[in-house]
Amino acid sequence: MITPEVVDLEGKKRETGRKAADALRDAMRVPCVMYGPEVDENVHFSIDELEFEKVLSESKRQILNITVDGEEYETLLKEVEFHPLTDRPVHADFYVMADDHKVTLSVPIKLEGTPVGVTEGGGRIFQPMHILRIRVKPDLIPGAYTVDISELEIGDSLHVRDLELEGIIPLDDLGRTLVTIRPPKSEALLTSSLITEEPEEELEEGEEALEEGEELAEGEEAEEGEETEGDEETTE
Q: Which end of the chain is more exposed for a tag (fewer CB within 10 A), N or C?
């Protein structure tokens, strides 16, 4: 588990309203708001766009210390709105944390190492989960989860329950797969081909029996019908 990076940002109080927000964007500043359980009223401010883009470029979770008019707030980035054409950040929401209040957030999952099943068996890495949703107190927030996959062989998997979760409430099912090592593609295709061909062979044998003129007696036909019904009930 990686400890989150703490980043300091300098904010300036701002006026609300569309014209004021547009003027800030023209000046390369991002209009923002922050709120939380111990904040009496929402704090409207702006931050430098280039500094904010550095925050957005990081792949791991960060704790952002934002100073506005000399007052410091320990926050998490909650939401960012981007311009649909330029992809510039046009607005951001920050959540001000309180020590006794748990927060809900998403944490990246990073893979580390090369599996034995890949180097020796030619397997393939499949990672269906890239983030984990958790609920946790601010002092236990992980920056990211690093998962060592170097010992995994073909067919091996790791799940949410295999992560270090002390003091953390996972909001995703403990049985969800984080990563699995699949067999080589050629082997997977061969297995699929064999499964597909089996029913065709059985069908051909049935056709041959009819072509030879073999007819079932009425008693045998009834017995087979009863067996078929029994099979269908078992399947259901």
A: C
Q: Is residue 32 part of a domain?
A: yes
2 DSSP assignment: B
* Closest of 121, 112, 201 to residue 150, by C-alpha: 112
* Count of positions (residues) in the chain: 236
Nearest to 34 by CA among 79, 100, 90: 79
Residue whose structure tokens are 């952002």? 64
pLDDT in tens, 17-28: 999 999 999 999
Beta bridge mates, 45: 13, 32
What is the C-alpha to C-alpha distance for residues 111 and 21, in angstroms, rounded to an integer? 40
Whether the CB-CB separation of 123 and 183 falls below 8 Å is answered with yes
d(CA 6, CA 14): 24
Q: Which of 99, 126, 145 is the last residue of a domain?
A: 99
**How many CA atoms within 13 Å lie on the side-chain side of 196?**
6
Per DSSP, the three-state class of 121 is coil
pLDDT tens for residues 170-196? 999 999 999 999 999 876 555 555 555
Q: Within this chain, do residues 72 and 134 fall inside the same structural domain, yes or no?
A: no
- Please check whether residue 151 is in contact with residue 203, taking contact to mean a CB–CB distance below 8 angstroms: no
Q: Which residues contact 128 (CB under 8 A, 6 or more apart)?
A: 176, 177, 178, 179, 180
Task: Quote the pTM value.
Answer: 0.69
> Measured between alpha carbons, how far is 150 from 206 in angstroms, rounded to an integer?
50
